[in-house]
Amino acid sequence: MQNDVHSTPSLAEAAHWQARDLAVLWHPCTQMREHPDTLPLVPIHHGEGVWLVGMDGQRYLDAVSSWWTNIHGHAEPRIAEAVARQARSLEQVILAGFSHAPAIELAERLLALAPRQPGRAPLAKVFYADNGSAGVEVALKMAFHWFRNAGEPRRTRFVALENGYHGETLGALSVGDIPLYRRTYAPLLSECLFAPTPDSYLANDEKDAESLALAAADQLATLFDRHPGEICAVIVEPLLQCAGGMRMYHPAYLRRVRELCDAHGAFFIADEIATGFGRTGTLFACEQAGVQPDFMCVSKGLTGGFLPLAAVLTTQSVYDGFLDDSRERAFLHSHSYTGNPLACAAALASLDIFDADDVIARNQATSAMMRKRMSDIARLPHVADARQLGMVCAFELTRGGDKKTPFDPALRVGLRAYRAALARGVILRPLGDTLYWMPPYCVDEAALDLLAEVTRHAIVEATACA
Ligand code: PMP
Fold first, then answer.
1. Which atom of ligand 1 is nearest to the CA of 243?
2. For site-directed labelling of 381, which of 145, 332, 340, 440 has its Cα 20 to 30 A away?
């Protein structure tokens, strides 16, 4: 154990930390009243690979990659070493008027790796922020400001997808469509146009995933027609609506978004914050559709899950639209930790691991291993849908085991599954009644066996209430 002060794992040790926590901490997106009786609170001592080790010595398989951030495993030694090395030399510097090698090198490498589409000028500039939501804010503000600079002040509207999610600051929430958030914060949100989701879950014998995606794209086209010259950008989570329940859609939709944005002179913002860095099978999800966005937001896996950092990649022509003698035409956005050197060093080390370990190729084998283990679970009576995209598998639990008869939300089937899995040493964090696997990429056969076995138990136990 690495914690010198409290070195003996025990239930008493865990209880001690839990009490101290509850005395002072307010946890994210949590009804604090539910801690600890309804919702367990688990103090973690350290991490190693796919495992998190509790203060009580219990090992937990991190099947959600700690909010989808960790891609190479916890406490990955190469990233840890890179951060430590950087910390001994330069930990932070103001990025206005100053610069540093890790920020420059990282920008160069991200641009070299970004999706390319024949006939389009490549993404050529990087603007840093310090978390995913802030990255989304940057892209939205930049898109709007570009049109203002270009003498098109009527272009103030954003189009986003129903069931989409882009973060929780007010701007990012305004383009999100998670009902709980929208209901709660409605008076504070700015207006956004929502286009129907191309979600393949709604496909059936009459309409396959592709025709469903194309029909949704037709409705997006209608929105453009209804608002000529008003739309400044369309923002989407490419191929996978994560917070919306790990809903997946056909790449044909993204090709249509690209075409429609071009036809109507609007920007295409790809929020690759959750999908980027190999999660969907390719380095970026946009690659699977062969499209290049005008703005690409990345965060989460960018630093391998070590430190908060976001980057917004955009084109030379967007950048050029801000060049002028006036300060008002400069992009007005600054976070204190913009391009933090430690975070950039972690990101560079993470990109090195992609090369050294041939991560994208290795993930193909891992994702096949995940698929194999999905099939048993897919056959359980309450599983209405089992789907996979690269390193993500999701299971939809319903009362009737079909897509039409959901569980009564009051039963909190997802929460029951969460507790059942946690008791068996696996962290599943369902989104409503959708269970999903999104493990660090270093997950091996034995860990996947445990994951599948515990998921099966958790589903059986959680759905026994029906
Ligand atoms: N966009 C997407 C697609 C996300 O999944 C998230 C985080 N879940 C965000 C934006 C916001 O990132 P952050 O939590 O770092 O603000």
1. 5
2. 440
